[in-house]
Design brief:
With about 450 residues, this protein is of the alpha+beta class. The protein folds into two domains: about 10-245, Aminohydrolase, N-terminal nucleophile (Ntn) domain (Glutamine Phosphoribosylpyrophosphate, subunit 1, domain 1), CATH 3.60.20.10; about 265-460, Rossmann fold, CATH 3.40.50. About 30% of the residues lie in helices and about 25% in strands. It has 17 helices and 21 strands. The chain has helices at about 20-30, 60-65, 65-70, 120-125, 135-145, 155-165, 205-210, 250-255, 265-280, 295-305, 330-340, 345, 365-375, 405-410, 410-420, 430-435, 445; strands at about 10-15, 40-45, 50-60, 75-85, 100, 105-115, 165-175, 180-185, 190-195, 200-205, 215-220, 225-230, 230-235, 260, 265, 285-290, 315, 340, 350-355, 380-385, 425. Strands 3-2-4-1-10-9-11 form a seven-stranded antiparallel sheet. A six-stranded antiparallel sheet has the order 5-6-7-8-12-13, with helices on one face. It has a four-stranded parallel sheet with strand order 16-19-20-21. The longest helix has 15 residues, at about 265-280. It binds adenosine monophosphate and iron/sulfur cluster.
Length: about 450
């Protein structure tokens, strides 16, 4: 298998410093980040004698950590991770945090994102005799830190490692005496800092801070390395080239609606994008409904803007696995039907607008249009709160290759015919900037303008 196919990871990270029972707090925080990854999870904690202990397993946070596991992770600092399931890599060896012993000492590392020059850096390191046990970017990051000169100290070594890696990462590193947190220089993935009692917490999303009762301080800046130790929080900038290319899919789909990313509430972003969706394409209908839960906030905005009643036209069965990760198309089709049921009493005889956050392969839309028609809907109009998703993401959101993306293969009219809707409209790219009140975002999966060099990945572009 091409190594480049294996490096997609969508995850969540947390780091805690100076808080009693840190691992128990991380256990709670990780549960609020569970939407970012359900394949597996782990926590690494520093115990009273300074050793780093790690527990990680496949499964949900609530199943992986019981009293036995948490009582083995005592201490006042820790890092934690949830990992997304992809059909490509399921190996336990890729679960995080990683424990690494380098020249500089022992540490643990957890990371969210995807490093685009990983293969180049890895090959260079292997040619110098370094061995890797996993396909993970995190192990590579860890190795780079581990081989750095001891005399430079931790912060300089972590900054130096970060500078050699291109792509998307929000990374936490735990040593005996400190917690380090850094974001790539483009700022693709979110990472926020909060105060928790006398200590600190960093997490991929602010919903984790809120859950554990932490007070939000600020976001970690692109290209910034925070050092959190007994003297407090210190900021270092490891890169002078800094951009604010936050992943627009974080706002559109990935993050939880109660999180705030770089000053913009995810729910507010989605509501505004729903209102813009109506303004860009006003449609006459009897009711607006949504694909639960991802289309809900945008549907609220659409309904308010169009003064069309919002109704629960589709019901979600919360106990089935996510359809997106089923390996075959037939299983994905069945999966949608297991996950969503139409409400006949609501849609029968009605002109229905359905709002969803995105169309990737087209499976969900096609199935649900048919289900709504079967339940008696007179008209079904699909409204998508994002532009056409036509380019693969190389920064950690796994949506498959270009040939799997329906918008890369078909025109808007062809997609409309394929999903069987009466009409279809995608939000403009401009609306994403309006909804987030930002001038910079990554929108590469919509327009193909990748903010980084793509190294070997560019061969897969066409
Ligand atoms: P599809 O059925 O392949 O068109 O996928 C579209 C659905 O998957 C939408 O309802 C989204 O909420 C969801 N979705 C979008 N991006 C992703 C992703 N990267 N991983 C998992 N689900 C996604
Ligand atoms: Fe996000 Fe799309 Fe950019 Fe990937 S390419 S980081 S999914 S906006």
């Amino acid at each position: 298998m091409n190594c480049k196919d294996e490096l997609h990871e969508e995850c969540g990270v947390v780091g805690i410093y100076g808080v009693e029972h840190a691992a128990r707090v991380a256990f709670m925080a990780l549960q609020s980040l569970q939407h970012r990854g359900q394949q597996g999870c782990g926590i690494a904690a520093v115990d009273a004698d300074g050793s780093i202990r790690i527990h990680k397993e496949a499964g949900l946070v609530k199943d992986v950590f019981g009293e036995d596991e948490l009582s083995g992770l005592e201490g006042r600092s820790c890092i934690g991770h949830v990992r997304y399931p992809t059909t490509k890599v399921g190996g336990r060896e890729n679960l995080q945090p990683f424990g690494i012993t380098g020249k500089i000492g022992r540490f643990a590392l957890a990371h969210n994102g995807n490093i685009v020059n990983a293969e180049e850096v890895k090959l260079a390191m292997e040619s110098h005799g370094h061995l890797f046990s996993s396909t993970s970017d995190s192990e590579l990051f860890g190795h780079l830190i581990g081989v750095g000169p001891v005399s430079l100290g931790w912060a300089a070594n972590i900054g130096h490692a970060a500078n050699q890696l291109d792509g998307a990462y929000a990374t936490v590193v735990l040593t005996e005496n400190a917690l380090y947190a850094c974001r790539d220089k483009y700022g693709f993935r979110p990472l926020s800092l909060g105060r928790l009692g006398d200590g600190y917490i960093v997490a991929s999303e602010t919903c984790a801070l809120s859950l554990v009762g932490a007070e939000f301080i600020r976001d970690v800046e692109p290209g910034e390395l925070l050092v959190i130790d007994a003297d407090g929080v210190h900021s270092h900038h490891f890169s002078t080239e800094r951009k604010h290319r936050m992943c627009s899919m974080e706002y559109i789909y990935f993050a939880r609606p109660d999180s705030v990313i770089e000053g913009c509430s995810v729910h507010v972003f989605r509501k505004r994008s729903g209102a813009l969706l109506y303004q860009e394409c006003p449609t006459e209908a009897d009711l607006v409904t949504y694909v639960p839960e991802s289309g809900m906030s945008a549907a609220i905005g659409y309904s308010e803007a169009g003064k069309i009643p919002l109704q629960m036209g589709l019901l979600k069965n919360m106990y089935v696995a996510r359809t997106f990760i089923q390996p075959t198309q037939a299983m994905r089709n069945l999966g949608v039907r297991m996950k969503l049921s139409p409400m006949r009493s609501i849609v029968n005889g009605k002109r229905v607008v359905v709002v969803d956050d995105s169309i990737v392969r087209g499976t969900t839309s096609k199935q649900l249009v048919q289900m709504l028609r079967d339940a008696g809907a007179k008209e079904v109009h699909m409204r998508i709160a994002s532009p056409k998703y036509a380019w693969p993401c190389y920064y950690g959101i796994d949506t498959g290759t270009r040939d799997q993306l329906i918008a890369a293969q078909m025109s808007e009219q062809e997609i409309c015919d394929f999903i069987g809707a009466d009409s279809l409209y995608y939000l403009s790219e401009e609306a994403l900037f309006k909804a987030s009140e930002r001038t910079e975002l990554c929108t590469a999966c919509f327009g193909g303008g990748y903010p980084t060099d793509l190294y070997g990945y560019s061969e897969e572009k066409e």
